[in-house]
Design a protein that fits this description.
It is elongated, with a radius of gyration of 20 Å. The protein is an alpha/beta fold. The N and C termini lie far apart (about 55 Å). Helix 5 runs parallel beside helix 6 and helix 5 packs parallel to helix 9. About 35% of the residues lie in helices and about 25% in strands. The chain has a six-stranded parallel sheet with strand order 7-6-5-9-8-10. Helix 6 links the parallel strand 6 and strand 7. The longest helix is centred in the last third of the chain and has 17 residues. The chain folds into two domains: about 80 residues, Ribosomal protein L30/S12 (60s Ribosomal Protein L30, Chain: A, 2-Layer Sandwich), CATH 3.30.1330.30; about 150 residues, SPOUT methyltransferase, trefoil knot domain (Alpha/beta knot, 3-Layer(aba) Sandwich), CATH 3.40.1280. The chain has nine helices and ten strands.
């Protein structure tokens, strides 16, 4: 059974300020919950309509479908919802290839980028303080468990870049070198900018290599690529050059 106070807490976690205050975030669906249960993340409580997750009985609450609908943010609830504790942030380790996000606002884009970092073996993801919260339920849902395998840290991006001047800083621009004909560094900080405005002027000043993903269509009338799509292309080319 789920109590009124639990319903109030769970629904409040839609907002970042309440996630920060409680130190909790929401995970929905069998796959996502199992992925995070098998990680170092700590379970706070699990609400399930009957699916067995082998979670501690003291933290497991058996509920019915009507109760699940009250706490779920999905149109079609997926048999379970869990609350996990937000892990403590640590100072980022700047080594190998690091991805940094400058003002990414769309939860789906951030979730997809986290999955891409996991796929391509990027261990550290830096997020500017105005990037969407990675524990937003939509972000967590989009990561499909990859949030547990990528170290995500919110930082003053300008300060980080100033303190790591020995690292190449790479960004994408409309007027940049063709990514497919450029020699890319194995290590460095790869910056991805805001969906509408790109990389901010302050961060652009610290970019040491400007890249461009060329268009091959005949009309070439498309203004820009989705930032998550651009991330996939960039990481694929960086890793291809590093390994072949």
């Amino acid at each position: 059974m789920v109590s009124k106070s639990q319903i109030k807490l769970i629904t409040s976690l839609e907002q970042k300020k309440n996630r920060t205050k409680s130190g909790l975030f929401i995970v929905e669906g069998k796959k996502g919950i199992r992925e995070i249960l098998n990680s170092p993340f700590e379970l706070d409580s699990l609400f399930t309509t009957g699916e067995n997750f082998n979670a501690p009985p003291s933290k497991t609450h058996l509920i019915n479908e009507a109760e699940l609908k009250k706490i779920s943010r999905l149109i079609t609830p997926q048999c379970a919802l869990a609350l996990f504790k937000i892990p403590e942030e640590h100072l980022p380790v700047i080594k190998n290839l690091v991805v940094a996000l400058d003002g990414i606002r769309d939860p789906g884009n951030l979730g997809t980028i986290i999955r891409l970092c996991d796929w391509f073996g990027i261990e550290t993801l830096l997020c500017s303080n105005d990037t969407v919260d990675c524990y937003n339920p939509k972000v967590v849902q989009a990561t499909m468990g990859s949030i547990t395998r990528v170290t995500i840290t919110y930082v003053d991006l300008e300060l980080i870049l100033k303190n790591n001047i020995d690292q190449p800083v790479i960004g994408t621009f409309l007027k940049g070198e063709n990514i497919y004909t450029s020699q890319l560094p194995k290590n460095g900080i790869l910056i991805l900018g805001n969906e509408a405005n790109g990389i901010s002027e302050e961060v652009e000043k610290m970019v040491s290599q400007k890249l461009n993903i060329p268009q091959f269509g005949k009309s070439r009338s498309t203004e820009s690529l989705n930032v998550a799509t651009a991330t996939a292309i960039l990481l694929s080319e960086f890793l291809r050059q590093a390994n072949y």
